Amino acid sequence: MIERQAALVAQWQLIGFIHGVMNTDNMSIAAETIDYGPCAFMDTYHPETVYSSIDHMGRYAYQNQPPIAHWNLAGLAQALLPLLSENEDEAVEKATAAINAFPDHFKVSYTAGLGRKLGLSTVEAGDKGLGSDLLERMARNKADFTLTFRYLSALSQTYTDADNKVRALFEDPPEFDQWAVDWRGRLKQDGMPIINARIRCTNRTLSIFREIIWVEARFVPQKTTMTPPLITGDGIGIALSAATRC
Predict the structure, then answer these.
(1) Where do the structural domains in the chain lie, given as residue ranges?
(2) What is the pLDDT of residues 122-153, one digit of tens each?
(3) What is the DSSP letter of 27?
(4) Fewer CB atoms inside 10 A, N or C side of the chain?
């Protein structure tokens, strides 16, 4: 369950989804996204983005979602202690070991997912840094989260006019140019057509999620019943499972 929750929150981060109200009663033990309240998807990327009008301190900001999920799971573990063992010390030991595994599970899911968004076929030591560098540059330059990754899919092994679509998203385009040199260097082991297809596959699916989740949240007040959650711990939208098989 810990691993599934970590994977779920990693998938939120990878599509720029901000839940908005991550108090404990709004997390599902089944690792599904529930409570469509003040949720939204980032356009301009910034890790401190908040959409809830009452979250004045940024408790549930985009960057805080992983640690909040971790904290909530610790609360659940505390409630479950009597079920883990009749011996209190043993129960605490089991719960602590499970909860402490959350950051590593999140890191694995997030790093692999970010790599796929960048077109990487394998996970190497410097990949998280490559992704983090891009995100930092996006934040400084107020770049669109989804479009930046989508436009990467049209780029070639060397600079072409296609780069200009990504560059235009950055207030200081050379910031992207500098990062793109490292990115292209990392991708030399694969042919660009394969990489392009891989990026389109991943980011097309995530963009479909973005659109449908918005529609789901926008029109739910008009429904008497709500359709099943579209984001699950497996990262597959129930209505879109076939679309993920790229």
Answers:
(1) 2-110+213-244, 122-200
(2) 888 888 899 999 999 999 999 999 999 999 98
(3) B
(4) C
